[in-house]
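Lay summary. Proteins are chains of building blocks that fold into shapes, and those shapes determine what they do. In this project we predict the shape from the chain. Here is one chain we studied, written as its sequence of building blocks.
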Amino acid sequence: MKRALVLGVEHVMGACLCESLTQHEWEVLGVVSNTDTKAPVLANLTLAELLPEDLDFLYQLAEEVDTVFFHQPYESDDSCAPFSLETIISLCENLHLQLVITTNQYDFSTNWLPSLAFWRKKSPIPVSVPNKLLKRLEAARPHCQQIHVVCLGHTLDCRNSEGYLGLLIKETDNRLYIQSPSATNLQHHWTYLPDLANSIATHLEDCPSQTNQASLHISYYAGHEASIADIARCLALSSGKPVFITPLPWLAMDIISLFSPLFRRFIHLRTLWQQGIATPQAQNLTKLDKPSTQTPLALAVSHSWRKK
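And here is the predicted shape, written in a compact code that computers can read:
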């Protein structure tokens, strides 16, 4: 039986990974930073509470596993995680473990021409895995069993307090409002985390292990391509309430961001919201297949909204 160490089980992605891995017959050790937080109860899952000063205990747990899973979303505040990504990479180097990183932290640059008034075409902005991270992983590659980086888009889950969808939706007794940060019909890539976790577990089973030379695999999970208007229609069906779309007041967001780290990160992605994201670029990038029973967009939003 394969053995995994999953960081951040109290968060949505960590919990989804635990559920999918145990369904694929993995034995899982889950790390939480607070035992009072909600975590899944599963037959093959053992939970441990670790704080930043418990690094020695983390190494003891890691000695019992084959693979370490670390989720690094752009929406998260790294200061909330007990261990940094650098700590986890060093851990996998020292113990020669397989490392799986899921992330939507990207490097991106915008063309100044689309910002001009007469330049009407706004093409999606190409994004890429941060070069600094790639260099660090290349250096770690010879010392790890395997390294997998899975890229994803925005999080499609109303339960995720670290995601943007919950931030955009406002609810009253008889209606819902979506504050749209982009043109309502502009398509974005949305990731439903249970689908992603299932795809990763399936991908690791199908990916051949290379015993002679460790390798770095970079994958992209396209998820669901949908606009704010599509999501509004799904929310209307799942909530039974009329949904109204209003433009996001970016000027007000600029002011709020002076006092809120979450809003500052949101403001940083303003251009990506307004123009959309092109598939991350990399020489060895592969597309991560979706599971055969992928969740449709309407079911994803409906399921999330009912569990809010």
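What the prediction tells us: Residues 124 and 276 are 5 Å apart (CA to CA).
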